[in-house]
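User: Good morning. I'm curious how S-adenosylmethionine would be positioned relative to this chain. Could you predict the structure with it bound?
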Amino acid sequence: MTKTKPILRWPGGKRRLLPKILPLITPHVCYVESFAGGLAVLLAKERSNTEVINDINGDLIALYRNVQYHLPELLREIDFALGSRKGLKDFMAQPGLTEIQRAARFLIRNKTSFGGNMDSFAVSRKNGGGGFSRESNTALLGEAHKRLDRVTIESLPYERCMDLYDSKDTFHFFDPPYLGSKIKAYDGWTEAQMCAFRKRLDKLQGNWVLTVDGSDFNRELFKDFRIEAVSSKNQSVNVRTHGEQRFKEFIITPK
Ligand SMILES: C[S@@+](CC[C@H](N)C(=O)[O-])C[C@H]1O[C@@H](n2cnc3c(N)ncnc32)[C@H](O)[C@@H]1O
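Assistant: Good morning! Here's the predicted structure, ligand included:
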C-alpha cells in the first residue's frame, strides 16, 4: 500500500515513530484518532472499514473538511497565495474571509512557518529554501483528498469522540498534547488533564495505543500498562521537563 504523506507539519507529529506504532494496531472494524493533529498515523496505515478523525482545533478540522470536499477550490485559493514572510504576517492579521480562504491561509501559514508553529517565518538555506511549493502542495493535497474519502471528520472534545465511537471492535490511537509543552499550535496539557484522560482508559471496550512524553509523572500514571520508552530527536516540541536534545516518549499499550 502507498502511504500518504501529511499535508502539514504538525508539532508533535508521529511520523518518526511509525515503525513502532503501526505494528501495534490490532485487527478492528473502526479506527479512531481523538487527537488527530497532522494525521501521520492515519495516513500511513492500511484503510479500515470505518475511520474517524477528531481534533479540537477548528481551523485544522476545517482544512481537512475542505481537502475532503472542496479540493479544486482550495487549490485555486492556494494558487493566489505567496509563500513569503510578508504573506505569513498578512495571513496572521487576516486569516481569511471565506471558509476556503481560511483553510488555504491556515495551510500556508503552517507550511511557511518554523516547524509549523504558524507565526515565525521559516528561513532555510537548503532543500529548495523552505517548505512552500505549489507543485508539491497540489500533489500532497490530491493524495490526501483520496485518502480522506469516507473518513468521518469530527471536531469534538476528545472525551466525546472516544466515547461515541468506542466498541469492542474499535481501535483507538491516542496522541494527546505533551505535559507542559510550550508550542504555539496548541496548548500543552496539565497533570490534571493527563490524570482525567488516564481514568477514561479503564472504561474503553476497544483496544488502543497511546503516545505521551516520557516524564516520570507519566511513568507513574500509566504504570498499570505496558510502557515502551523511545528516544528521538524532536526540535519542534519544547517540553518543560526535557531540556536535552533527545526527546523521550512513551508508547503505551494495555497489558
Ligand atoms: C500531539 S498532537 C497530535 C499529533 C498527531 N498524532 C500527528 O501525528 O500529527 C495533539 C493534538 O490534540 C489536539 N487536542 C488538544 N486537546 C484536545 C481535546 N481536549 N480534544 C481533542 N483534541 C485535542 C490538539 O489540537 C493537537 O492537534
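The first strand starts at residue 30 and ends at 33. Residues 10, 12-14, 34-35, 37-38, 40-41, 55-57, 157-158, 175-177, 186 surround S-adenosylmethionine (CB under 6 Å).
Let me know if you'd like a different ligand tried.
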